[in-house]
Design goal:
By secondary structure, this protein is α/β, with parallel strands linked by helices. The protein is 48% helix and 14% strand.
Length: 190
């Protein structure tokens, strides 16, 4: 498990070094992070929840666990994970749990961390995380940040910076505003 968490630290640091398209949002992430409530980023798959969580925490001392990792899931032990997080991320202020719904009993563990005062940022995209069940599981303990694909305005702004404004409407209608397909198509042309 230690190797999996160490590898995820390297992954986190690599991801933080990449350039990203800033999202237009109604949220003040600095204010949200001050809250002791769980910050829960929800939305459809591939809309940028994990990226937004990383950007919220960029420049802050935070630990990172990505549960879309079979190496971590195969060896999962919450007590050992908590010990290793303290070792690999000394004195971390925030804990980012990416796709936490992939572990059995995630809700009990998250509630335990919350009661211990861990400042949590969580992403999730499956039906369990998006349903009304979340209101029951974490009642009164979370602030929901709903993520959607890029809007046409966001896509147009990005395309204009790259000099591709003419193609944006056709591409947006064809591919939608999903960040990965959108950015790959335009970044490859520059």
């Amino acid at each position: 498990m230690k190797i999996a968490i160490q590898n995820q630290r390297k992954e986190r640091d690599r991801l933080l070094s990449l350039p990203y398209i800033p999202r237009q949002t109604i949220y003040n992430f600095d204010e949200l992070l001050k809250s002791p409530n769980i910050k829960l980023l929800t939305g459809p798959r591939r809309v940028g929840k994990s990226t937004q969580a990383l950007l919220m925490l960029r420049g802050k001392n935070f630990a990172y666990l990505n549960f879309d990792d079979n190496e971590l899931l195969k060896k999962w032990d919450e007590q050992q994970a908590e010990m290793l997080l303290g070792e690999i991320y000394p004195n971390y202020e925030y804990l980012l749990l990416d796709e936490v719904q992939n572990i059995d009993g995630w809700d009990v563990w998250v509630n335990k961390l919350y009661r211990r005062g861990v400042n949590l940022v969580i992403t999730g995209s499956n039906a369990k995380m998006l349903s009304g069940e979340m209101a029951t599981v974490l009642t009164g303990r979370y602030l929901e940040i709903n993520m959607l694909p890029f809007s046409l305005a966001e896509a147009s702004q990005f395309a204009s910076r790259l000099g591709n404004a003419e193609k944006i409407q056709d591409d947006f209608l064809k591919n939608g505003g999903y960040p990965e397909t959108f950015t790959q198509g335009y970044c490859q042309k520059t």
